[in-house]
Amino acid sequence: MAEKRDYYEVLGVSKNASDAEIKAAYKKMAIKYHPDRNPGNKEAEEKFKEAAEAYDVLRDPQKRQQYDQFGFAGMGGQGGFGGASMNMDDIFSMFGDIFGGRGGFGGFEGFSGFGGFGGGNTGHKTYKGADLRLKVRLTLEEVATGVTKKFKVRKNVTCTACNGTGSADGKKETCSQCKGSGSVYKTINSMFGRMQTQTVCPSCNGVGSTIKNKCPKCGGEGVVSGEEIIEVAIPAGVDDGMVVTASGKGHAGKQNGVPGDIQVFIEVEPHKELIRNGQNLEYNLLLDVPTAVLGGSAEVPTIDGKVKIKIEPGTQPGKIMRLRGKGLPAVSGYGYGYGDLIVNIGVYVPRDLSREEKEMFEKMRNSENMCPKAEEKDSFFRKFKKMFE
After folding, report:
1. Most trustworthy range by pLDDT among 50-64, 66-80, 81-95, 211-225
2. Which CATH number fits domain 127-170+211-269: 2.60.120.10, 2.102.10.10, 2.60.260.20, 3.40.1160.10?
């Protein structure tokens, strides 16, 4: 699809929908657009993927909170777990059980259902690796440009002895109990007539096959404990509390299953001079009395280094200057352009004066120009009052 739609809109639910309502809405959409019900229909397939992506985010309280707060940017610019490029097997493996254990829809006897985790009418289960959570501290300079961070993580990795199959000789046998379907069925009599229930095969755990000669290194799991250096690209403009998802970088899935993700939680270090306010940055500039009175120039820090700004004669405390485009960039897919650097100007009034300095100010005390005019007093108090409204 050319442009992502709001996840709540995709599932047709409100933003305060309960978990049960979200699950029911997804099930309805998945049934409507399931590929077995719409063979060869690319539009239905895309809608099926779109619904799965929306459900992947909204079913998870943490992902949902990030999405509600930051939109698609809260998903690290990724949205759900892969968008239009996701593999159909991944969807079936992650959400197939929502329809009754194997991806089919069960119901009255004679209703064939719609395949399962693997598509078609066989639908073998695919294992999903667990997600990992990491935290990273960024400087404001790294936030401004974006950065790639490396992490050394301990996780399940694919067994090299069996190439992840779990089998010492690479062979698997069709499960004798479910005949390779991964599911077992039972017909019961009810007040509605004969009904068929569907559950995961207990012999093969839904895989559809068994391993007779298990790999001695991994014990048939297809994964072993290991270490890996992971690189995660952090986009520019991220803020405290955002989560960047590195899809497929988590624990390896058993028996060549779907790998999990890595969720990187962002923490931004305070800057020693600049204060962040969304995309804008703020700097408190304290002028000396002569510069405020006579004018001149002053240096202010930015992310790119110091710049000089012009100080007009008679600059008043509380004046705000705005340097356009000197703030932070918007996170990709959320917001637009760059923020500004806002300079809040104050004036330093010295406490300790020499005798000569005191005499100088005494001479100016009664000068007409040193006393505020009535309209200036009125303007000052209006601004002061507005600050507390």
Report:
1. 211-225
2. 2.60.260.20
Q: What is the pLDDT averaged over residues 246-271?
A: 93
Superfamily name and number for 275-387: Urease metallochaperone UreE, N-terminal domain (2.60.260.20)
How is residue 123 written in tokens? 């639908």
Structural domain spans, the chain: 1-86, 97-125+173-210, 127-170+211-269, 275-387
Q: SS3 for 232-282, per residue? A: EEECCCCCCCCEEEECCCCCCECCCEECCCEEEEEEECCCCCCEEECCEEE
Element (H, E) at 383: helix 374-387
pLDDT band at 92 (very low <50, low <70, confident <90, very high): low
Find the mean pLDDT for residues 310-339: 88
**84: three-class secondary structure by DSSP:** helix
Whether 254 contacts 219, CB under 8 Å = no
Residues 166-181, mean pLDDT to the nearest whole number: 90
From residue 181, alpha-carbon distances to 97, 205, 211 in Å are 14, 11, 16
Q: What is the percent of the chain with per-residue pLDDT over 90, rounded to a whole number?
A: 47
pLDDT at 75: 66
Helical (H) or strand (E) element with 309: strand 305-311
How many C-beta neighbours within 10 Å does residue 221 have?
19
Q: What secondary structure does DSSP assign to 1-32, as a single string?
A: --SPPPHHHHHT--TT--HHHHHHHHHHHHHH
List Cβ neighbours of 381 (8 Å cut-off, separation of 6 or more): none
For residues 99-115, give the mean pLDDT.
36
